[in-house]
Amino acid sequence: MSAVTYLLTLPFPADRFQVEAAEAIDRGETVVVSAPTGSGKTVVAEAAIARARERGERVLYTTPLKALSNQKYGDFRREHGADAVGLLTGDNSINGRARVVVMTTEVLRNMMYAGSPDLADVGMVVLDEVHYLADKTRGPVWEEIIIHLDRGIRLVCLSATVANGPEFAAWVRARRGPTTLVVEHERPVPLSSRYLLRDRWENGRLRLLPVFEDEEKRQPNPRLASMLRRSGGAARYAAPRRRETCRLLQSEGLLPAIYFIFSRAGCGAAAAQVVERGLRLTSREEAADIRRFAEERTAHLSPADLGVLGYGRWLGNLEAGVAPHHAGLVPAFKETVERLFAAGLVRLVFATETLSLGINMPARSVVLESLYKFGGEQHELLQPGDYTQLTGRAGRRGTDRQGTAVVLHSPYLPFERVAAIAAAGAHPLRSSFRPTYNMAANLMAAHPQSEAERLLNASFAQFHDERRAADLEAIIRREEERLADDRAAARCECGGVEDPGEEPPTGHDEIMSAFASSTAAGDVLAWPRADGEEVREVIVARGYGRRPRLLTIATDAGLHNLTPDKLPAETALVGRLQLPEPCRPREPDYRRQVADLLDRWEPAGAAPRPAYPGGEPFAAGARACPDFATHAAAARSARRREARLEALRAQRRSRAAGMVPRLRSIAALLERWGYARGWQLTPAGERLRFIYNELDLLLAEALERGFFDGLGTAETAALATLFTYEARGPEDAVVWPTPLLRQRAERIVDLAEALAAEERAAGLPPTRSPEAGLVANAYRWADGAGLEDLFGEEGAQVGDFVRNCRQLIDLLRQIRDAAPHLDVIHQALIAVDRGVVSASGAV
Asked: Which of 378, 403, 424 lies at the terminal end of a domain, its last residue?
């Protein structure tokens, strides 16, 4: 049947955007759908499948996660029957020639590069969660497919709401031909945003207040903003405690809820904490149903493994209706939580952001404990699109009249910033595309150099850059004009920043910063006012760092937060005042008390210590100018503009060159290392085509140099972890199981350093260093040890170990394809893929 006809068979009327998308599918066009989470994008995919089956074509449905692929496989089996649906994820290969095959995006990319005959009769590919192409590590895979997949195959791209949908669709149209963009802004269930804070002045009462004065206009609630700004706001309001928040959700009828905490350890600790404090969300009968279901879903795990996994504690939390959900849990635990939550038996889940990706777990409310999350190197503020994706879980279609998003108060994030993130709705989709050694090898195998370079410059990043080139030129011109103005303002008759004989006017900042660093609480500062009267303030707290802030109280009881550049050059330390204890500068009564003491204070006779040596506020030259502060500010602005202009000009140069110079540098390096001759691959280069790993060339070279030859089964598995493992935090010293394993690992590290040095010389980003943090446990596991041997009776991070083992298995399969002479790889696969690791890969 046609896509539109399929919509008529649904038990509910199709939404406008679903009809628009179905009509475009029936016209034979590629479709880009941008719609909120939970709006029914999967209905569009089902309509596409119906259309393809009518035409006798096969459909491939791709997702970014194995867990999501497994879930979609189960959904489609129930819809279309077991014979019509297949699954390909690396872990599983089931009915791969079926009419509808669900797979991870990487599997499709690999099939495409390998020229798989299984693509011959494919008429439609669904790219679910296509906004994932912004992901720094895996995002390029989506672009590779959109660029390189046979143009005769139509795409259905399903995306969360993005701010630049028209730009993305225009790029897809340029790559794939006729393309329709379908945008849906309305959520199927309206969302109400709430701000939760704890009022210390009212015995810790929780207050749940609207973020917006009007949800449609998205204007910040002025009453709430005023409350938080008023004197005493910082001391009065605090972040709610977790158990208090959970009790409030229960009493306000906001369960079931997903409580986002961007820390795996934090999710587990929170679930245990609230249950230990007495939170129970289930009846006795429901707890019994939960126990039976959990026992069924974990029956394949041995009692010993269950003990190590903390099964008893996990089950106890489940029976109370509470559970954690994150990537560090073994799949059996995660899937049990998902099924019980969907069934309404588990009513409170503490989750990391991985739950926001496609998993079918709608809730009545969503709680964001913090709007900061760790981005790999530092904590970063959530983007508006991340906020929208997370809160998209709030509101169950057909059950709830509205969903509720609850943001917890933080004294470190202004309310206006919270409201701005919540109001924005989406952020632009940005490309993370860049050529890799494996991609270069596959381009060499499939295309002449000119065609490969043309395809590489067809990336979304290049498309975006070309459309923004005119804007960039305008920005550069504007910055150049402002730089000229700053340089003019920095000049004076006494000298300026462009006078090489003049000391830069930042000396004032340096002197005042050094002076501020030498002060302490209780020091009294004084300086003359313009009218000749003396200003006197006492320091009650001093910050740290190169430019410490000073918190001071003045004689009028005013509380001031002074940075060194705000201190007048005539400032002097004139003595000390004994401050009352305890120090409470935020309280008006305390400030009035200190101001009274300061007003009556007299110096003890010690000579004042001026900020400037010798008491002279200005030295000769530029500092003698009465407009010194204006010149100094202009000079600082000029230096900032110069740095910004250099970055903008570098950006212009790189955009003009596009991706081609990097591809050429990669091709030249591959030739020097023996993987190519000109644009032709050598046998080593052909083997590189089979390695889809972040350290692809390093692994290929390790195989070429025989670093895996002559190893035992456990040694092989352990050595391979150098290419898959990445530490999440500080690591203990590595304990090497065998001298040979240590020797081979050291040779790989030396090789990595040589490769990185050559990459830097070629202007390429260096390949990251291999990490040995999993070596010991991988060796022992492959040597037959059990989970209890590795982690003790109740080991932490077992889920991470299992996940790392699944990644190791994927890599061992790639090594098997690239180096079939290594018979030990087959034994290593069997040794690793057992017990709880094997169970985690099953559907």
From this structure: 424
Other C-beta atoms closer than 10 Å to the C-beta of 828 total 28
The amino acid present at 246, given as its one-letter code, is: C
End-to-end distance of the chain based on CA atoms, in angstroms?
30
The residue type of 333 is F
The distance of Cα 218 from the centroid of its chain, to the nearest Å, equals: 25
How many domains are contained in the chain? Answer: 5
- In this structure, are 643 and 704 located in the same domain? no
pLDDT tens by residue, 575-603: 888 888 888 888 888 899 999 999 888 88
Q: Is the dihedral of CA 240, 243, 245, 247 positive or negative?
A: negative
The CA-atom distances, in angstroms, between 763 and each of 354, 431, 436, 681 are 34, 21, 14, 22
CATH at residue 69: 3.40.50.300
pLDDT exceeds cutoff 80 at 402: yes
| pLDDT exceeds cutoff 70 at 149 | yes
Does residue 454 lie within any of the structural domains? no
In a domain, 622, yes or no: no
In this structure, is residue 203 part of a structural domain?
yes
Q: How far apart are CA 446 and CA 686, in angstroms?
A: 11
Query: What does the pLDDT average to over 665-675?
Result: 95
Q: Please report whether residue 333 resides in a domain.
A: yes
**Spatial separation of the C-alpha atoms in residues 169 and 31, rounded to whole Å:** 8
| Cα 298–chain centre separation | 31
> What are the phi and psi torsion angles at 197 (to 5°)?
-140, 160
Residues 112 and 202 in one domain: no
Contacts of 478 (CB under 8 A, 6+ apart): none
Q: Is residue 404 helix, strand or coil? A: strand
**Do residues 773 and 734 touch, judged by C-beta distance below 8 A?**
yes
Check: CB of residue 49 under 8 Å from CB of residue 59.
yes
Amino acid identity of 532? G
Residue 89's nearest CA partner among 72, 76, 75 is 72
Which letter, b or e, does each residue of 62-92 get, where b requires 16 or more Cβ atoms within 10 Å of its Cβ?
bbbbbbbbbbbbebbbeebeeebbbbbbbbb
Look at the block and give the residue holding tokens 């390949």: 767
Q: What share of the chain is helix, strand, coil (3-state, %, to 5)?
A: 50, 15, 35
Q: Which domain holds residue 265?
A: 191-424
Q: Provide the whole-model pTM.
A: 0.72
Claim to verify: residue 646 and residue 787 sit in the same structural domain: no
Question: Is 46:61 a contact under the CB 8 Å cutoff?
Answer: no
**Structure confidence at residue 228 as a pLDDT band (50, 70, 90):** confident
Specify whether 519 is located in the same domain as 599. yes
Closest CA to 33 of 128, 149, 138: 128
Instruction: Look up the CATH number of the domain holding residue 783.
Output: 1.10.3380.30
Rounded CA separation 763/418 (Å):
40
Question: Poorest-confidence range of 209-223, 246-260, 315-329?
Answer: 209-223
User: How many helices and strands (H and E) does the chain possess?
Assistant: 33, 28
Q: Are residues 247 and 283 in the same domain?
A: yes
Could you tell me if 163 and 202 lie in one domain? Answer: no
Determine the pLDDT at residue 677: 95
Same domain, 83 and 210: no
- Residues 249 and 290 both lie in one domain: yes
How far apart CA 843 and CA 839 sit, in angstroms, is: 9
427, two tokens: 């952020």
Q: Is the pLDDT of residue 696 over 90?
A: yes
The separation between CA 665 and the C-alpha centre of its own chain, rounded to angstroms, equals: 29
Q: What tokens appear for 45 in the block? A: 């995919």
Domain end position, chosen among 183, 204, 229: 183
| β-bridge mates for residue 88, sequence order | 93, 103
